[in-house]
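REVIEWER CHECKLIST
Item 1: Sequence provided? yes
Item 2: Single chain? yes
Item 3: Sequence as submitted:
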Amino acid sequence: MTAEAGIFDKLQNDLKNLNIGQSQERQQQPKNKSDKSDRKAFSKVVYSGYSAKFLPVKQLIYDGKLQKAVEFYATGGKSDLPTVRGSFKDQIDQAEAKANTEAIDLTDEGLGFLISLEHGTLLLDSGKSQDAIVKFEEAQRILDVREEEGTVTEQAKAGFMGVFGTIVGNEELGRYDGEGFEKVLMLNFHSLGYLLNGDRRAFNVAKKAIDWQQIEERKFQEQLVEIEKKLSQEKKDENASEDGADSATEMLGNELKRFEDRANAVASAYVNPFGWYVNAMILEFESYQYSGLWSNARIAYQKAHDLNPDSAVIKSALTETKKRSSPNKNKRIFHMLIADGFAPEKKILYNEIPTNFGPVALKLPLYEPVHNPVDRIEVRDRKGKKLAVFSTIADVEAIALRHQKDSEPFNNFRAIVGFIRGIAQAKLMSQAGVFGMMLNKKLEEQQTPDTRSWMSLPSRIQGVRLHLSKKIKTLQIVSFDKDGKVLGKKTFKLNGRKQEFVYARSINGELLVQRPEKLWLQGG
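Item 4: Structure as written out by the authors:
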């Protein structure tokens, strides 16, 4: 018997004993509301687990040391990381401060998929598109292997670790397979890597993202049906009727209301139009050589518009491809994409709920938006004349928050199960006096919700589409805050081709620009 299995069996026996203790306790000590702690329920939101351990990497990015962040992953975690400070430090769960100073374990197989995603994004943003492609391919291979072995080894491991994690309260023990919307974005960024490499395989990967989005949406709907069944079963547990059980789900609901407007900005987490937009852009480029592809580009723009009808850049492209029967070959077509800000981070919502057996601590994962000072980004000519304002194609922030909203049944299930476990634990420990209280506190500290998510993702992917005269050889992009203050400015040269593509990254308004040396097109 392995050490893990031994612990697993012991915990199962302990839980059985807890159930016996619960029924006896119920008979010996009937509910008396006057015994409840005078303290009111309270909550706070803090970094913990993976999200806390990623903060030193994010600190490097904010400090303008993107290459250092890449180096951390390239060296297997052997390079130095900075101490987090400011708002990062203030929001780390102080009860786990020591653990949170530890860096991400890059040898953790369960984190393999996520590590490849983070590394790939950092490589892409630092101008190493070929290396980024390798990492995104690596992430896909990990998923493919897990899918192939899903009925044997990997599923067995995930099943055991999932149950084990639920019992001890550490949800980060198992492997991370990513949320459905993250898998779609993985392919989006893979296609970006190919675009920056001047490789037409960007089209095939973008098409794959379109197909995966439909598959992942079906999977999510099936999971919702299953969790609703489990939730109704858990609500029948005798401990779920304890005073305070409703608070577990009410507090979560109140937190989610803060993000209601942003979550409702998209119809679901599976309306990401980026795959269709990239396909349309590629077909439009190629229509300058093969005019028959113009109508194909129009169809792809229409599909993108169906998913994001409010995007100005998609609307404009669709309108023109409908009006014209072929491209205007007298002018160059210029497409630029920019990844701005950071996607919501998964923190923990810490609740302390007063009960007749003392306060019960409950921790739940919670996506929170990341502050972004950028209000708008403009494209200007070299003299400073405004040519266009970037508009959002893929609203990653809204997609993540919509996923959280639609996943409320999953989190309600976590809340109910967590409360049942917590009240049973509190009942048992209350019989052991001061020692029991100390042990109960220690067990509460060991609870670790899964805060793993793709933290280097941008909050939004925006685009502009322009017709440029052959005279224009240089452009600049400028970022502004809501008061109109310039946050960053970057000037870049064009290649002089009929079809131009440029990619940029905006971090707190600071701008990084890159473009492919050549495209796959004739004269490319």
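Item 5: Key structural point noted by reviewer: The radius of gyration is 26 Å.
Item 6: Recommendation: ____
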